Amino acid sequence: MKLKVLKKGLLVMGGLILGSSAYAQYLRTSYFMEGTSSRIQLNPGLQPTRGYFNFPVIGSLNVGASSNVLGTSDIVDFFDSDGTDIFDNDDLYNRLKSDNRLNVNLNTDIFSFGWYKGKGFWSVNVGLRTDVGASVPKDMFEYLRDANHYDGGAMNGSITDLKMNINAYAEIGLGYSRPITDRLTVGGRVKVLLGIANAEMEVNKFEIDTNLPADYQNPSAWDAGKTYTAEYTSKAQITTTMKGGCLSYDDNEVIDGFDFDGGDYGISGAGFGIDLGATYKLFDHVTLSAAVLDLGFIKWNKSHTTVASVDKSEKINVNMDNYDQYISDDFLDFERFSLKDDEDAVKSRTKKLSSTILLAGEYAMFDNKLSVGAMYTARFVEPKTMNELTLSATYRPKNWLNAAVSYSPIQACGKSLGIALKLGPLFLGTDYMFFGNNSRSVNAFVGLSFPMGLSKKDACCKN
Q: What fold is seen in the domain 4-462?
């Protein structure tokens, strides 16, 4: 059926990196675990207790999702029902806001390692990153509920300010940190970014007002001598950039699918990014720290970009062959918008990364084996900045044994705890442990890391 390939294509583009998101880009619960390598992803000014080598791919794997309304069971129900039955869920409908947001991210390092040289700590990583964001207005659900129960007669619906975006890229990073004084340590990471896929969809306005015969799905219900019309308005745009993949069109230049050629799959953009961080020991047992992550951009190539758009208002004839285009109850049916090839809109695009600001404080006790800390993060994702406050307690008696519990109340509405454990080379953790049956934020981190080179103490002494 028309556009089925496109609908799957836009969803799959974000996953092409691996076959090829709670809101937390990395595991916040690990921030004060000195024996883990993952903490330097949150602040390049932090230093682990010794050098490391992470097992390829699964050595540093983080995935999660977060929403201001939708919970895990809502999303599972959506895919189980092909996105139709969920709109009859009165409990979900009553929870909806005017703007319903969803963010998903997946990060993994193909390989990464770090080592001490004197007082300085070097790190190298080659990773894959995916960010997916969506903002779905409540009127979209209202339109789909009406379409799902429509059985002829008057039908009117509207959709405004619907947004979806996918950003997938590879990262090659080089980091360095070093104590400046006995109390101050600073660090940074420079990153070369290779764009893999980018897709954006925005529906500014969609309206339909029509009156069809009763039992309209039965061909005999249509009166051959009667003309059925609809008042129709559509203003929308889809932009995709991907080498080996592009929007495709029918003979009328209306979008009808997404073509993907795996043999031509490759880099479709390039950019640059930096991470900056610092720690300062205010008192013997009190340490403050701050970081700014993912300051940078990716420029997506014009040659790998396709655009489909529409901006029109008209009265149209509706018949047995095209009625489903306008009253479809399929959430991902883009055919309703009548998007056409727009070569004049094709151009190179520069997109900023989803940056993060981090502020933290820690109080250490019992010869630094136990600590309590607090951390604030703000991640500037699309369509809206996500904020979180994390309170944690960390136990770190040995480099091979670290454990932490955390509480992050904002995204999980105060209904979740975080936990992390490093036992030898294996590291497991989550900022949002699943409680109840419909958590709004979930994430998981898996790590497998082996010690490499000198410890921090030995390296400093040798220097």
A: Porin (2.40.160)
List the one residue out of 460, 451, 462, 461 whose CA is nearest residue 51: 451
The residue ranges of every structural domain in the chain are 4-462
Q: What pTM was computed for the model?
A: 0.84
- pLDDT tens readout for residues 286-317: 999 999 999 999 999 999 999 999 999 999 99
**CB within 8 Å of 98: residues ≥ 6 apart:** 137, 138
* Structure tokens belonging to residue 15: 């996953």
Q: List all residues 6 or more positions away from 60 whose beta carbon is below 8 Å from its beta carbon.
A: 37, 38, 41, 54, 107, 108, 109, 112, 125, 127, 445, 447, 449
Say what the alpha-carbon torsion angle 174, 44, 115, 420 is, to the nearest 10 degrees.
-120
Rounded CA-CA distance 291/274 in Å is 11
Instruction: Report the distance separating Cα 9 and Cα 386, nearest Å.
Output: 27
List 115's β-bridge partners, or say none.
122
CA angle 150, 68, 198 (to 5 degrees): 85
Contact 177, 114 (CB under 8 A): no
pLDDT in tens, 371-393: 999 999 998 876 678 899 999 99
